[in-house]
User: What shape does this take?
Amino acid sequence: MSRTGYETIKIEREENIAWIILNRPHRLNALNDVMMEELADALITVEKDPGVRCVVITGEGDRAFSAGADITAFPKVTPVLAEEFSRKGQKVFTMIEEMSKPVIAAINGYALGGGLELALACDFRIASEHAELGSPEINLGIIPGWGGTQRLVRIVGLRNAKRLVMLGERIKADEALQIGLVDKVVPFEKLREEAKALAKKFAEGPPIALKYAKYALNFGTQVPLEVGLRLESSLMALLFSTNDVKRGIEAFMSRSKPEFKGD
Ligand code: COA
Assistant: This one.
């Protein structure tokens, strides 16, 4: 299904679930330019593939989901390059947020800086018990630049976001769960299984309704309530033109399980 020959990521397909695996474990899956380009390419590939109904993003190994942007490139960065670097990264992560399919982050270790920002753009976050999360950019004298200041606050609120971004402290998975930064914490050995179970639920769901639900929810965080409500009505109405709504209603009436097909 995918372009072959990625250097820094892998794509694996398991039935109708696509796994995107960040694959620079010796660098704790730090996100360099090549990885960001390959990630963008992989996101386009899975978005276009009608056979993919859910995407899981994770990191290779048991140490890191991603320890963030590759700091080794920073010494040569000028303000102009930094602005471009920030905008490019924001665009890649926005592709995740705007993807028409549910995207799950399976956080298999450190999710720091850009690694956390990547996870924040996903719809759900499942973390391994030993994972540590944080926005340590302040310790380098900068701030998050790939959407962290904006998405973090929407997910965990201003108080928690200020603590993470302004203190730059790492928090453990159980605390991340308490503040709503992750949705579930599981032992490392169970992470893949749990992420797959959740992905399977989405993969069996009605794709068009899931797409509209994701869009309405994300859009609603950015617009006045009345605008969001109007959009909700329109999308809800549009869904009555799908065959999946017929399948859903028929299955309810006959007490069977609906087989949604995405049309
Ligand atoms: N960019 C580039 N390389 C990184 C990296 C990053 N963001 N994070 C880790 N690495 C590299 C390390 O330099 C090291 O490489 P080396 O073996 O060639 O020296 C390797 O990955 C392993 O990391 P190391 O620091 O030795 O592991 P550790 O267990 O001692 O510490 C961390 C783990 C995550 C606490 C530490 O690596 C760290 O603080 N990383 C940077 C996190 C960060 O600030 N991210 C935001 C960037 S804006």
Remarks:
- The chain has a mean pLDDT of 96.
- Residues 207-253 form a domain with the Lyase 2-enoyl-coa Hydratase; Chain  A, domain 2 fold (CATH 1.10.12.10).
- The radius of gyration is 19 Å.
- The chain has nine helices and ten strands.
